[in-house]
């Protein structure tokens, strides 16, 4: 539109109307008044539009860009992690998803089963550490597939170097611990009432039942696993063949636990490992065989401080996995474990149809082994009478 031309036409028309009003002929005052108002309004709008265009031309008024709907959708900053967590949990419950939840869920990477949300996975790991604190002392990795962990083999002492003499390379060696993976599962049959739980309550429920069961099983393997068709652990942490313990070398066998054989087994622990060492035994073993030796008026062999028991300065870790009379002392950072597949949770409504329930299956792939032959672990066994 030519704004200047139209504004001139309006002024000309207003002049004509003024002449009509000033003339002696009959006129329709209402019609002229209405037309004048309309012309004034149109003229003001044209003035405003002309001023805006002029401002854009000289840069005083920015142009308004019309957003591209495709670009705007791609740049959407909705909370992906939060929406995915909500979508994953609601899918387990069988609830409908919002549009944002569907978007987040459809972008889940991996296999046909979407991965457990990071925040929920962290809660599961946190719960596992609460149930089995020994896991915090072990070296635990999350590496997909088979895993080989390098360990120190022969380690010669440092030597004095004489000036200008050639340095001889020490005959040190490097070994390794190879881990594969064993599937650990927990099947839970739950009431259909779980569908009515809030997201937070349902997450807490899943974390509680799945994490606790799997953590207790992994802890059991760390203490009594054989390493044959199952994860291994401290039971194969000795200096002997295949990690066996040998009486007089890294094991004491006795008919009654005494101060003398406690100090003897402590002395068998290789130098340096006592800094991070803990005793591991069942509560029954401690209170039946060790507790009676606590006599602060005589020595500090056994102490109680800050809610924990200590034997020769090393904390006592209670576990129900070890048999009565069996105890270990060692640095559990020399237990290496790996989740070659992190914990996953799936549900089935069909398997629980007959009982009107829902089945939830938690699973992971895990393996563990002790780094044997270093003297990082010793064993005290009270033989049955």
From TrEMBL:
InterPro entries: Phage_capsid, Phage_capsid-like_C. It is found in: Virion. Residues 29-56 form a coiled coil. Residues 116-371 form the Phage capsid-like C-terminal domain. Keywords: Coiled coil. Transmembrane segments: none annotated. It comes from the Bacteria. This is Phage major capsid protein.
């Amino acid at each position: 539109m030519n704004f200047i031309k139209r504004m001139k036409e309006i002024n000309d028309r207003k002049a004509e109307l003024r002449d009509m009003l000033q003339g002696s002929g009959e006129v329709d005052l209402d019609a002229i008044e209405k037309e004048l108002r309309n012309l004034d309004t149109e003229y003001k709008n044209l003035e405003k539009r002309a001023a805006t265009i002029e401002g854009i031309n000289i840069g005083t008024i920015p142009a308004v860009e019309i957003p591209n709907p495709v670009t705007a959708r791609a740049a959407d900053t909705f909370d992906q992690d939060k929406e995915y967590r909500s979508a994953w949990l609601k899918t387990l419950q069988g609830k409908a998803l919002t549009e944002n939840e569907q978007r987040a869920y459809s972008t889940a990477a991996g296999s046909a089963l979407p991965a457990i949300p990071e925040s929920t996975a962290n809660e599961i790991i946190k719960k596992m550490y609460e149930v089995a604190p020994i896991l915090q002392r072990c070296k635990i990795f999350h590496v997909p597939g088979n895993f080989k962990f390098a360990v120190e083999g022969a380690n010669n002492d440092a030597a004095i170097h004489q000036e200008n003499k050639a340095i001889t390379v020490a005959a040190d060696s490097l070994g390794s611990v190879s881990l594969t993976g064993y599937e650990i599962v927990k099947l839970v049959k739950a009431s259909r009432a779980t569908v009515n739980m809030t997201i937070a309550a349902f997450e807490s429920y899943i974390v509680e039942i799945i994490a606790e069961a799997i953590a207790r099983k992994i802890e059991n393997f760390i203490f009594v696993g054989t390493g044959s068709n199952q994860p291994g652990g401290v039971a194969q942490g000795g200096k002997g063949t295949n990690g066996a313990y040998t009486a007089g070398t890294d094991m004491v066998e006795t008919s009654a636990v005494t101060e003398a054989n406690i100090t003897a087994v402590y002395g068998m622990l290789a130098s340096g490992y006592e800094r991070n060492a803990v005793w591991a035994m069942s509560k029954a073993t401690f209170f039946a065989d060790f507790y009676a030796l606590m006599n602060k008026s005589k020595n500090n062999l056994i102490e109680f401080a800050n809610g924990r028991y200590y034997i020769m300065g090393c904390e006592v870790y209670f576990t129900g996995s070890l048999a009565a009379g069996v105890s270990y002392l060692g640095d559990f950072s020399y237990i290496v474990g790996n989740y070659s597949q992190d914990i996953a949770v799936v549900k089935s409504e069909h398997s629980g149809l007959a009982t009107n329930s829902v089945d939830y299956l938690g699973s992971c792939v895990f393996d563990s082994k002790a780094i044997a032959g270093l003297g990082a672990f010793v064993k005290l066994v009270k033989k049955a009478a």
